[in-house]
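Aim 2, interim progress. The first record below pairs a target sequence with its structure tokens.
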Amino acid sequence: MTPTTQSNWFTQTSDALYDRHYYTINNKRFDDYDQLRAYWFQTPTTRQPVLVHDVDPPKLKSNGFK
């Protein structure tokens, strides 16, 4: 079954880019949300949980620069 835009499988909580997260499923890391979704749909068991991890922001040096 292919989800449609009317599907309630995915919910969108923000229009901002998802570049502040990375995702893991089955011990595989994905930095791109679209690649994660493609993998999720291709796996035989689609009820695998997806973990969303925050990317730690780079720490600033004492002078305020990266």
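The second target in this work package is listed in the same format:
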Amino acid sequence: MLWFAAWLIENLGLIPGVAPFDPYPFNFLTLIVSLEAIFLSTFVLMSQNRMSHLADKRAHLDLQINLLAEQETTIMLQMLQQICHHLGIEAATTTEEIQRLGKKTDIHTLVNELEKKVPN
């Protein structure tokens, strides 16, 4: 703000003995401010691009971790079914639901379903 104020005071001829180097309509000041805006917008866009790339990497890593967790949960459910069967314990949920949850998730089917539901 001080820099702009000094520029305006000097170039409006308010300082005696100092000739304005950028008289009204302040073309040189406009050029400087425009170049600053161009550089700032370029840096902001570059930063957003980098942040978007990092977010994509994190999302991919989260997906991999979630798929591994799903595989581990499926294996634990199958082991729990075997333990219940070995001990002769009846499950509280239906057999169909247990069988459905105990199946291995097909990733390709899941991706196809997501592509159908999420528009590009």
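Residues 2-117 form one domain. This observation will shape the mutagenesis plan for the next reporting period.
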